[in-house]
Amino acid sequence: EPEELKHYVTRTFDSLWSAVTFGKDANQPLLVRGIGGMGKSALIGKFVLDHALFAGVDLPFAYLDFDRAALAPRQPLQLLIEIAAQLGLALPSVEPELSKLRADLRQTIDNQAKNFTRRQRESATGSELSSYCESLRSIVEKVNDGKAPVLIVFDTYEIVQYDEEAVAGVKALI
What we know:
Helices cover 63% and strands 6% of the residues.
């Protein structure tokens, strides 16, 4: 029944918004999973469109489609650059800070590439990645005073699943 489906979808979106903004786990990752073709990407797309113009709140989001060859899931710092670039487009008030963060990330990637010991230490500890993630969080939270979620969509994750290093890279970022 179309009305029944409309009611279910509306209720789902309302619940999703409540979960990511007001629930006790509001700052925790929310996993939407299911078999291919089920409509996961469409659900998230609809959610973003419905809430992108939510009065008084900016809903910053980044969309990482692993079907894009340009994304390097093995490299969490590279993924963070992509996230910061997309957030910079959505949040022009903090773009200068995000631009500096991206430059710092590129410099760190270059330094790690030149220094095997530093690269191994980072691989073992993730301390630089954690520091950059915290920096990104503090920049973005300024926009809504920490009162709205930041949505990061990892789409076509099945591409990543077949590569252990890629899974480790994405897991490190999350």
